[in-house]
Amino acid sequence: MAEESAPLERDQSQQSTLIKQMAYEVGFDLAGIAPAVSPEGYHRFLDWLDQGYAGEMSYLERRKDVYEHPQTVMGSVRSVLMLALNYRTDEPPSLSGTQARISRYAWGNDDYHNVIRKKLKELSKRIREHLPDCETRGVVDTAPLLERDFAQLAGLGWIGKNTLLLSKTEGSWFFLAGMLLSYELEYDTPHQTSHCGTCTRCLDACPTDAFIEAGILDARKCISYLTIELRDQPIPGELRAGMQEWMFGCDVCQDVCPWNHKAPFSHEPAFRPDERFTPLDAVELLSLDKTAFEERFRSTPMSRPRRAGLLRNAAIVLGNLGDSSAVPALLKALHDSEAMIRGAAAWALGNLGDEAVFALLNQRLAVEVESDVIQELKQAMTEIKNRSE
């Protein structure tokens, strides 16, 4: 029996090596293969949902059962090829005036989903040319797959205290993707050891104290969630100051991680910083109407919070920056058609305004019809009044 299985094992080993080589050839930076099993972290994921830490990301709750096994994504799956694509680029520029900070992953001129899907399509083509009867399905982070669990199972790295996958060679500056395969292959050795040690820099540096404990994130307090996923309602008042200069996403827990300090830079041209996006002037952003917003951000990650969400973020950043040159733009935003933008502008003016601004807020209060905005206007006027006393 052992003699019969030896050629099969050699064949599986050769196929695995070849498939990973194909992944590197199409541009991925890490590749490993895991068995198609129920991920170890599935029940932790369910507990996380039960605690309410997903906030308004209701799609996770709706699809929670599908995450239990990759067979729910592709019934014939036997192996999961996990892949990583580095997006680390030049260090963040120093901000000045009314400029806002954007998460590094959004600096390029194309949405990373588009970049990765092109690579997955090419990889699938190569695999099927070599193995014509192998079924494949490429997945990015829109598919119901617990990518970090499978990446750890495939030996790519370990899940850090900031909940991100960490690699000794790449740090955490990478996107994860996967390729589901109907072939049984030789699997890589799972990454069993955490290399975070006693370090708690990521936990200590979080501006909004979003980590419940090491490895557990309350997304409702995470700046990335607040500025990207929470796109249809105001950001809670107690978290706005913690946003600091972050208008889209947040990199703080990655910036402070020692494993990222020596991580290599990305070779992907689409991720190179585009001067249209980094840095962004928050005052300029407030001037964009719907058409201008769509023209500027279409097919980029910054389209996700939509105009109302991104301009809401811009107003909050201006309130945090404390630059009085932003007052005219914020006063104009008080009359925006989107209530969420009006409310955020009122909050910012409460931080920046003087008696003249107080009078203009009072004028707006007389005609405002949205209850949330009325409350923001009243609170802003109270802030200005308290400062003048």
UniProtKB/TrEMBL annotation:
4Fe-4S ferredoxin-type domain span = 187-216
Q: What is its EC number?
A: 1.1.-.-
Keyword line? 4Fe-4S, Cytoplasm, Iron, Iron-sulfur, Metal-binding, Oxidoreductase, Queuosine biosynthesis, tRNA processing
Task: Specify the superkingdom.
Answer: Bacteria
The GO molecular function terms of this record are: 4 iron, 4 sulfur cluster binding; epoxyqueuosine reductase activity; metal ion binding
Top enzyme class, one word, equals oxidoreductase
- Gene Ontology biological process terms in this record: tRNA queuosine(34) biosynthetic process
Q: Which PANTHER family did the record assign?
A: EPOXYQUEUOSINE REDUCTASE
Query: Can you name this protein?
Result: Epoxyqueuosine reductase
